[in-house]
Specification:
Blueprint (H helix, E strand, L loop, with lengths): L23 H7 L15 E3 L7 H9 L3 E3 L19 H5 L2 H11 L2 H4 L6 H31 L1
Parallel strand pairs: 1-2
Length: 151
């Protein structure tokens, strides 16, 4: 999971045949958003996900925590459920590509993409190192941009 700028916030390891949506709540509980003052926030303003996350339990969990769900509805062959149609902000959904790019950045690390590590603990350590590298790269880019603007 990343924030709107692509900064990695949380990761969870599952078996290869397990869909990511089954551990959505676990990953959400790991999210910590740094703020200038005070303790980190645990609730983002919105959660953007693709159609695979269009599940009642996910929407219910997000709604109960006061988070805006930016998840499009699946194209269901058997028809929609009765009631108000699901609404989502299409402009926010367009920015979901930031998450996909962050996942792609992780896959550029050969050690993570091919899973050289034999144990889950060692693999997650590599994932966390890659996340830290991504955060540091963003800080470096922000520093370079601020220097060029000041010059």
């Amino acid at each position: 999971m990343t924030d709107g700028a692509g900064t990695p916030l949380a990761a969870n390891l599952t078996a290869s045949q397990t869909h990511d949506s089954t551990v959505f709540e676990t990953v959400m509980s790991k999210v910590r958003i740094c703020v200038p003052k005070g303790r980190p926030r645990t609730l983002p303003e919105a959660v953007a996900a693709d159609k695979a996350y269009d599940a009642g339990r996910i929407r219910k969990n997000v709604r109960s925590r006061g988070i805006t769900a930016v998840i499009p509805e699946k194209c269901k062959t058997h028809g929609r459920k009765p009631g108000r149609p699901i609404q989502f902000d299409q402009e926010k959904y367009k920015r979901r590509n930031v998450v996909e790019r962050a996942a792609g950045m992780m896959k550029h690390k050969r050690r993570i993409a091919t899973r050289y590590e034999k144990t889950a603990r060692n693999y997650m350590a590599q994932v966390h190192l890659a996340m830290i590298e991504g955060i540091l790269r963003q800080f470096e880019l922000k520093r370079l941009v601020s220097q060029s603007v000041a010059a």
